[in-house]
Amino acid sequence: MAERIAEEKLNEIRQAVEIVDVIGEYVQLKKQGRNYFGLCPFHGENSPSFSVSPDKQIYHCFGCGAGGNVFSFLMEIDGLSFQEAAGKLAEMANIELNLEGPAASKNLQLPEGSKQMVDAHELLRKFYHHLLVNTKEGQDALEYLLNRGFTRESIDRFQIGFALPSWDFAVTLLEKRGFLPEVMAKAGLVIQKENDETYFDRFRNRIMFPILDHQGNTIAFSGRAMGTDEPKYLNSPETQIFHKSKILYNFHLARGSIRKQQQAVLFEGFADVISANRAGVENGVASMGTSLTDDHISLLKRNVQAVTICYDSDKAGIEAAFRASNMLSKAGLAVRVAIMPDGMDPDDFIKVHGEEKFRNDIIGSSSTLMAFKLLYYRRGKNLQNEGDRLQYIEEVLKEISRLDKAVEKDLYLRQLANEFSLSLDALMQQLNERKQTSAPRKQNQPKPAAYTRKTELRPAYHTAERRLIYHMMRNADVAYKVQELLAGSMMNIDEHQAIITYLFAYYEKEHDPDPSAFLNYLQDNKLKRVVADIEMMALNEEISDQELADYIKQVLNYQKMLKIKEKTAEQKQAERQNDFLRAATIATEIIQLRKTF
């Protein structure tokens, strides 16, 4: 059983952390009025419906209904238990919990089997790094890196290490620390021999680059050969903790810089990221030996508005940059492309031309997406040839037709007309013809816009119950007064009744009125969402006796209406059975009920 955390510790944590800062690590937030809005991380959307209130320390999505406080946010987005979320927040706030057992583990968000795999990776990462920088065995590898332009600072920052030319160093070390070889084989660290029960190291005599997930857990390695060994790079296989399609290398270190600059630089591989970081480009990330995926884009979109692509200048790199730029642009991100000189990658350029020139002439002078596409469509064409020239013009017109801004369209049309001595009117006519033959835009297609909360029309009794709960969570005296006025009657909405039942139990334990603390007390996620939605209502903090009486009247009147409907049905049933005496009695009861309104 997880160790219980004292209430005073939870209050200390809640007061020490700012919900906007915590959620801001996962969601790109913009302030609108008193609250912050962004794209909901719990469901796909193009217009921001996810709201965070710093005043109330509550979040709520008006689209999918997700809601709660800072604890429940981490529980939902990282799959943590309450104790694990509290441990993570305590670590952020430098608050000592002194817990033992599961809640004390660093890798809180991982299931037990995955924790063992991560712990093994963490152990080897530290040993590999130690072997590189502190031992005679790692001296040749260290000099190799230094000669290639790596600095001790970058070696330490990225925890680069060295795997000994041994067949069983990792196997022996891990077994001594209590890790089962069969589990380590599943983790991709060791390999079982065919027709044998013995194991050997996957990585031998290689410079080791650890791969960390977005929370900073070591989940894989890439080992680089120093000589002519093949393959040049040996990577961890896909495992239950390592999925290449979901991981962006260096994201955990770059996230702060990405958010500060509101821009990410996307590289092809981790070597480019490390070189660029050494040159002062600290917002660089890379996909792990795979094409850009929807998961990568979703992660970027939650954190940034603009992405600069900096891939190799060879044919494969340009094609990959073209695909990635289209995917990022389609997702609504602003895209620029840093054009590398022919035959060079970022690491080569920095070695030849220096760090400042890379920052200014490559990253700082990146091209707009349209300018990159103009260069892309020129490749392999002889524009002196009529056929190639017409094909190029058609491809460019196709791209211009997709531009949203009239000024951009005019700029590139004039550029095209001037370059090939064409009539601007002719190009405009061809562009319009292309529009007419394209599929028309659906009339009801939603347009991105600033979020405005939808007003949901609820019955009077429903709204009254929500407002009562809002005030009951802020004032225990109001809560008990509502209980007295209800006189044993229940609220009409089951979730509302469940919430006030928990609320009275909360007050009976002598907790102070605090909606955010009450959210921690609630165990039911559905009820947490309802409370978070209620919390987002814009109401006055104070409530008069007349308002209270009016809300109670709405709640009770609905119950009377239901009773009248029930009695009316009974009356008709009695009349059908020719039981006129019973029908008359019921009619009298209905009259008495109506008098109580």
Characterize the structure shown:
It contains 26 helices and 17 strands. The chain has 597 residues and is α+β, with helices and mostly antiparallel strands. The protein has a six-stranded mixed sheet, with helices on both faces. Strands 1-2-3-4-5 form a five-stranded antiparallel sheet, sandwiched between helices. Helix 3 packs across helix 4 (82-92). Residues 101-109 and 439-455 have low confidence and may be disordered. It catalyses: ssDNA + n NTP = ssDNA/pppN(pN)n-1 hybrid + (n-1) diphosphate. Residues 437-446 have a biased composition (Polar residues). It comes from Mesobacillus stamsii.
Mean pLDDT: 88
User: Strand order of the main beta sheet, please?
Assistant: 12-14-13-15-16-17
Gap between N and C termini:
52 Å
Number of strands: 17
Residue stretches low in confidence (pLDDT < 50, at least 5 long) are 101-109, 439-455
Major sheet characteristics: 6 strands, mixed
Shape: globular
Alpha carbon gyration radius? 32 Å
Total DSSP helices: 26
What percentage of the residues does DSSP assign to strands (E)?
Answer: 5-15%
In helices, the fraction of residues equals 40-55%
Judged by helices, strands and strand pairing, the structural class is: alpha+beta
Please supply descriptive tags for the structure shown above.
globular, 52% helix, 26 helices, 597 residues, 5-stranded antiparallel beta sheet, alpha+beta
Please write out the topology.
Layout lengths: L6 H10 L2 H6 L5 E3 L2 E4 L11 E4 L4 E4 L5 E2 L1 H9 L3 H11 L19 H23 L4 H9 L4 H6 L3 E3 L5 H8 L4 H6 L3 E3 L6 E3 L4 E7 L5 E8 L7 E3 L12 E2 L1 H11 L2 E4 L2 H9 L5 E4 L6 H10 L2 E5 L4 H16 L3 E4 L8 H8 L1 H9 L3 E2 H10 L7 H16 L4 H15 L3 H14 L22 H13 L3 H11 L7 H15 L6 H7 L3 H11 L9 H32 L3 H16 L2
Parallel strand pairs: 13-14, 13-15, 15-16
Antiparallel strand pairs: 1-2, 2-3, 3-4, 4-5, 6-9, 7-8, 9-10, 10-11, 12-14, 16-17
Protein name: DNA primase
Enzyme class: transferase
Keywords: DNA replication, DNA-binding, DNA-directed RNA polymerase, Magnesium, Metal-binding, Nucleotidyltransferase, Primosome, Transcription, Transferase, Zinc, Zinc-finger
